[in-house]
Amino acid sequence: MGARDSLTQRLLSLLFMTTVVCSAVAAYNVGPIPVPWAGHVLAIGGTVLLVLRTFRTPLLPGAGMFLFWGALLATTTVVQSMVHRYAGLMPELATTPYPIFLTLRFFNLLGFIFTAALTAWFIHRFGRQRMIRATTGIGAFFAFFALYVYAAQLLGLPEPPRSRLGTNGGEQAIQFDYAFHRALGSFREPSHLAEWLLVPFVLSFVSSDRQMIVRRLVMGLVLLLTGSLTGILSVLAGFGAALVFSPTNLGARLMTAFKLGVVGVAPYAVFQLLVKSNDSNSVSLFQVILDRVMPLIFGGGLKASNRGYVYEFVDAVPPPFWGHGIGNCNLVFSDYMGVPFITSMQSLYVNTLYAAGYPGLMMLVVAVAIPLVPLYTRPLSGIDPRHILLGLAGYFGWLVVFAVHAEELSVGFAIAYAFVATLLIDRQPVSAASNVPSPVN
Q: Is Transferase set as a keyword in this record (predicted)?
């Protein structure tokens, strides 16, 4: 490899890690630009550099369907915007004009596609184990930062000023009506921090060396301190689905389930100590979760949750067969709600239904299913079973998040998607990771 190629590869690896870092700095702007958007620019630039320098990255299973899905969204949006006057629905607290608002929705979609491509290249070039080390290292760094911010908010210590508007279009909140003070870190909401930690936390179970144990502990602790029902249950559901549906040996899966339970004790114990030290009343995380889960099970399902307004809208305003177009559906929803800011539909599936109609929703389901099919139809020899199990846990976990909280494809899911989609393309056998300590402990 020439010196120029070597320099380019170093630059690409730096772009990958910087993209992940930018996705975590969600509460801050650089001038008028949110830092995560800058991360999308880096991912797009890195992938373009891949093409220009002809560093080949394999076409990921499902990538074609995601591209067709994006094309359908674009076509529907253009046609519907020409036929209907959605611009007149822009609320008074909207931060961008209508054309820019729509453009940014597609920009986020491009960010997902190019981040997945950059992640696949990083795995192909440097190996899955190095990708895990990089991702969990970044996750642990921002978990430590979240602990500092947590302490700073309680003790009156300085923290970086939050320069981005809150999710409701106003100033960011740092106090929330909850049973205990919630970790917020570098995000605008505790639930966003929990969702971002999902993939790094899951991947930290790949080995039991001291460094990875520390990373796992701090990320697990911060995940609990967010108090996010979505974040905590998505981790549990992701691991649960992976343990049930993983094509690996049943005995190994059962042993992994036992070890996961043991590992979860330490973060919970530290959580209880921290929460008690800041509150005169004893707080049980299990009770907090039960108080929120039981009404969902016995009191009307998701309609009884704090997302109930979304499903009331679904009942009251059926989606057009072809949808309103990306972004336009949020304007229709905000107009229905009568709020002065653009409202999230809190679900990728609901958003897709109203953006691209029933054809778009079907295409999305097919796109997320395609990477899973080869794991059940092709031989898995030469693939580390830990990578299969943990990749599926992160993948399924994000599918849960998309059901109840996130309406757009994310950097976290791009990493999980690339990780799973490359398992059979870039087979990296157990022997190649023989220097890695024993699996999940």
A: no
